[in-house]
Amino acid sequence: MTTQLFEGKEHASLYQKYRLPPPDEVQKLILSYLEAKKQRPFSLAVDVGCGTGQSTRALAPHFEKMVGTDISKAQIEEAKQSSSASNISYCVSPAEELPFEDSSVDLVTAAAAAHWFNIEKFLKEVDRILKPSGCMALYCYQACMEVHYKDCASKLTAIFTECYNSLAIYTSKNTEIVYSEYEAIFNAIPYTDKKRITQMVHKFQMPVADLIGLVKSFSMFQTFLQIDPEAAKKLLQKTEQRFLEVMGVTSNETIVEIWAKHFCVLACKPL
Ligand SMILES: C[S@@+](CC[C@H](N)C(=O)[O-])C[C@H]1O[C@@H](n2cnc3c(N)ncnc32)[C@H](O)[C@@H]1O
Questions:
Q1: Where is the Methyltransferase type domain (predicted)?
Q2: From 216's CA, which of 27, 129, 142, 170 has a CA 20 to 30 Å away?
Q3: Calculated CA dihedral for residues 92, 95, 100, 104, nearest 10 degrees
Q4: Burial class (CB within 10 angstroms; exposed 0-12, middle 13-18, buried 19+) of 232
């Protein structure tokens, strides 16, 4: 089962360490959409497939109560261990059976997670728990990113793409929904008030070591690791070594700039 990909404790700690909160641009987009539909204060938001809670924590200040849910016990255990505001709680729950009352939720989010759900059942469940005029925001990014450092962007991006492509055989069907920027998910949403924002390029900086860590957290890398641990580790070592050679540096703490393409599906339940 695809969700078993996220069951490992070690995988959950990689999430906690390397996964990033949604960019400010995406957070602003979601909040301004919600504000256009509903008046503050917002009582409850639910972050489904919350993993270790990066997105949950980022959006929590705007809600009286924020609940992160995930099917993986290991991810929820990690989320609970991170320092969290008092309005945040977490629980283990499948996206297709959410533990909330009918018409009780202002916002349902899913960050880099909706493509793992049974989308038909999830959308029905979202419709049940959303208040009238409540919103959903399903967002994600393309994991094949550009890597920039001085004038080496094209070489570094080519190395990253090569590494990413060599993991392609371990991609699950679910991840393929991401390549089309959630088009199928957008089309499945039964509401007329909906929109899909694509190609939002977010630029951020991180050490080469963390970029390698991010790749380690990819589900397809974890599959590779299970099938052939030696080859998987070698791929990362080689990729890091090639980066450093092209950059002309020796430290994997050297900062590179990553350009990642984000996209977001927004929808509002009718009154
Ligand atoms: C790629 S991770 C994203 C985690 C987090 N939202 C983030 O942005 O880092 C996908 C998460 O979805 C969860 N997941 C997958 N299928 C699920 C389902 N049917 N119900 C609830 N959570 C699910 C996984 O356990 C995993 O934590």
A1: 46-137
A2: 27
A3: 140
A4: buried
Strand boundaries in 166-253, DSSP class E: 194-207
| Total number of domains in the chain | 1
Q: What pLDDT is attached to residue 79? A: 95
- Residue 216: both structure tokens together: 């380690």
C-alpha of residue 128 to centroid of ligand 1, in Å: 20
Q: Check if 3 has its Cβ closer than 6 Å to any atom of ligand 1.
A: yes
Instruction: Find the CATH number of the domain harbouring 245.
Output: 3.40.50.150
> Model confidence over 169-183: pLDDT tens digits?
998 888 889 999 999
| Residue carrying structure tokens 């090639």 | 242
Ligand 1 mean position, distance from CA 48 (Å)? 7
Cα 76 off chain centre by:
15
**pLDDT score of 49 more than 70:** yes
Nearest residue (by CA) to ligand 1, atom 27, is 51
Q: What tokens appear for 270 in the block?
A: 């009718």
Cα–Cα dist 33/42, whole Å: 13
Amino acid at 93: S
Q: 56 CB less than 6 Å from ligand 1?
A: no
What is the dihedral sign for C-alpha 61, 67, 72, 75?
Answer: positive
Give residue 70 CA to ligand 1 midpoint distance, Å: 6
What single letter denotes the amino acid at residue 55? S
pLDDT of residue 13: 83
Helix (H, G, I), strand (E, B) or coil at 220: helix
Is the C-beta atom of 17 inside 6 A of ligand 1? no
244 CA to centre of ligand 1 in angstroms: 32
Give the atom of ligand 1 at the shortest distance from the alpha carbon of 15. Answer: 9
| pLDDT at residue 61 greater than cutoff 60 | yes
Q: What number does the ligand 1 atom closest to the CA of 117 have?
A: 19
